[in-house]
Amino acid sequence: MGIILLLLFQNSVLSQNLDSIIKVLETRMSKHEVYDLEKDERIKYLIETNDSTNNLIEQYRTNATIFEEYQFYSFNEALQYIEKNITIGEKLNNNLLQDEAKLKMGLLLVNTGRFKESIDALSEINLDSLPESLINNYFIVHKEGYSGLAYNTAVNRNKLIYSKLYTAYQDSLYSRLKPNTEEALRLKEKEFRDNRNLDMAFKMNAERLEKVKIGSRLFSLITFERSLLHELNSDVTKQKEYLILSAMSDIQASVKDNASMGTLAKILFTEGDIDRAHKYINFSYDDAEFYNSRLRFVDIANNMPLITKAYEKKTAKQKQKLEYSLIFISILTAFLLIAIYTVYKQVKKVSLARNELKIANEDLKKLYKELSEVDKIKEHYIGNFMNLYSEYITKLDVYRKLVCKYVNANQMNALLKLSRSKEHINEELQIFNRNFDSSFLHIHPNFVNDVNKLLKPDSQIILVDKTILNTELRILALIKLGITNSSRIAKILRYSVNTIYNYRAAINKSAIDKENFEKMIKSV
């Protein structure tokens, strides 16, 4: 899942589905104990390894590794093991080991908001005697320490002094850094951010992100700083996305000294998402308490009461609604019991009438059977009537053709013209159709609706005049009456057999159940 999210992030598509990555974050939150257990197992193995040797140099190295595991996981434990290394350096009378451990202690203290203590921890270090590999850390601790003191002091004179010292150590550090290193890019990004040159700050941040993977402390830090850029750019959606990424990485890396979750909780609170804000601020508080982070406690203390109060107020309203609902349900229950009693009495009456209904039902069945027989007789006679009517029209047409033949032989042009006219036939055909439609719909008034129920929604038959059937319905009406032979239908309706075949095929194609459509037509 981490790899997938990183790919999404690199392709800038996270904003398409903010809800989905919030769900991933909450899944990570529910599994944070699994990540913590993995870290505890690693630390346990290192401690056991350390206890198995008396070699002070090996103990120093193992302690340094344990410190790295605890550095952002548990302040007290991290401080304990770095102090052990200072003691080992003193026992070995090794200034290099002592200075290295003190610098790490300074970084630990400054990262947790203990700015004065961090600078004091470095007071015994002689800068001139430090090896090249440790000088950068020396300047970093002083830079961050004086930055924190300048930001937090209320005395303007001290603020000016601390700011000058911060600038001096930052300039000294910057002059030593190699281009495109993490610390150099971070300083450049901060400078651009402070000067509100957001385009260049985003560029520096992107360069840093390319070098890290989700699930590391550095990824969490860089994405958090990117959220700050989006905040300055007034893009709250993007700000939340990168805070979520940072928080997920913190959880995966078991980083308890974090700011992303608390910041995200504040944003959600302002947006009115009280439940999530309360959940996230409590998660952040638990991390801060576990780590013993003074800096995080101060930040959380400024926001947690407001969020908790809003959550409790919302919970109280929900509780009140629940109480009202319970009262309403109780009243409904009382009515239901009364209704059950009433129904019980009615059931007794119904049981007495059941036998009478049974007898009546048998009578109705007999009556229905008789009516069904009557319907069959009606259908039979209607079919015969239409057949006779159709034959009559056919005879008239034969007569017309015979007259035409005789007239042609005698050259009686006027009579021939008259005999060739189909007006009489068309009129008779219209009369036939009208009589058929009227008779059929009189017996089967719901026929059109019943047919439409068997057709697909896009193939429904809508009649302009509900008293006149169209050709499709007349074909179906004949099938309903038992006339299924296409030749016979063609003869009755005065169409060619092919035309009837085409109509029937089109109708079947529009049916929901093509195989049984015509069978169902007979039963509607």
Describe this structure in words.
The structure is a single chain. This protein is mainly α. The chain is built from 23 helices and no strands. The radius of gyration is 46 Å and the shape is elongated.
SSE sequence, one letter per element: HHHHHHHHHHHHHHHHHHHHHHH
Which shape, going by the Cα principal axes? elongated
Beta percentage is under 5%
Q: Give the radius of gyration.
A: 46 Å
Mean pLDDT across residues = 84
Strands, total number: 0
Give the end-to-end Cα distance, rounded to a whole number of Å. Answer: 58 Å
Main pleated sheet: none
What percent of residues adopt helix (DSSP H or I)?
Answer: over 70%
Number of helices: 23
Helix vs. strand class = mainly alpha
